[in-house]
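Q: Second attempt. The first request was missing the SMILES, so the protein and magnesium ion are both included now.
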Amino acid sequence: MPRMQAADFDAVSVARPELAASYLGLLASQPGRPLALFAPRRIGKTWFLDQDLAPAAVQRGWLPVYADLWLQRGAPLAAINHALEEALDDASVPKGRLGKAAQTRVSKLSAFGASLDLAEAPARRKLPEAPELRFDTLVQRLHGAVGQPLLLMLDEAQALADGANAEALAGSLRAVLHKRRAQVYAVLTGSSPDALAALLASTGAPMYHFAQVLNFPPLGDEFLLALQAQFARVHRGKKPPLEGLRALFERLGHKPALLRDVVKRMSAEGLTEAELGFQRYLADEQHVAGWRALIDTLQPLERGIASAVALGRPPLGQETRELLGRIKGVGQAPTVGKVRAALERLKKLGLLTRSGSPQVEDPFLAAWLAGREPG
Ligand SMILES: Nc1ncnc2c1ncn2[C@@H]1O[C@H](COP(=O)(O)OP(=O)(O)O)[C@@H](O)[C@H]1O
Ligand SMILES: [Mg+2]
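A: Got both inputs this time. The predicted holo structure:
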């Protein structure tokens, strides 16, 4: 029974058709200019592309093509091309089960030497090997095959800035999107505008010339209301007050899956006070064990810095460094350079946020760290 309840909370979701429609409208009004949507991690960007934007595109008569550029770090164009090739494959196979079955029968027949329409279709020239040309050709061919505008969704686009030839790559992406603007629209998402902005600026023009940069808005009260409703279904009308949920959602950086986890737990324990639910969540032995294991992999100085950041102390400040010096295993107040290097490592590990002044990425870990002895 509790398991079933948990699953119902997992199914709580919010559709955002108006937001999707507004993005598509923007794209249509400025061909060749992608949208770049930025929001911190786990706010719901990927979910939105998949659940809202892609269906809205289909409705509009566009073909959505999704590529996660993070998956092939260092080779983002390969990831894009791969996604386009898959879409091209799909487009060349007759749609639906019937089509597939027919095709299988046809190829079996061909084993007996029957003459086939398929075999008579003119063979396509091979795709160019060079990724930039391949990208251009794929856009053209896919568009030709489906006869619809493409919507290229490039998730985690800051990966464009990662590779060795990042500048050249961004340049050709930009050139192709411009040249093929009648055939393809593009949406980029990212969790850190900094890297991407720097990269695109280095290709000759600031990012806002290349893409329209927008902050992707987090979910609002509609998500809280949906959670409330689910809670009320389980608890015969009893539900957590909206104010408390709102405050907690804010504290959790508007990350829906995190709030859902706490509310699930509140439901299991019959608690309606969000703050109390959060405290229980933080005290959960399993969670604590996980955070401790994570922190134990760090060096003493890094651990101390993570705690300082969680407490909202400026990590490079004189006072903070003196405090850090008192941590066992650190020895003496570390230099600014040393703290900088440690911050960099913590960002690389994903423990601290990359853009702006550093924060602990995971709000639970942040709260747990803030509530214990530093170091
Ligand atoms: N509209 C939504 N309704 C319900 N849950 C959502 C919604 N958007 C995101 N989530 C939850 O948040 C999680 C993280 O979202 P995700 O799209 O992966 O974030 P991002 O791509 O910004 O890092 C999802 O796995 C899902 O559980
Ligand atoms: Mg994502």
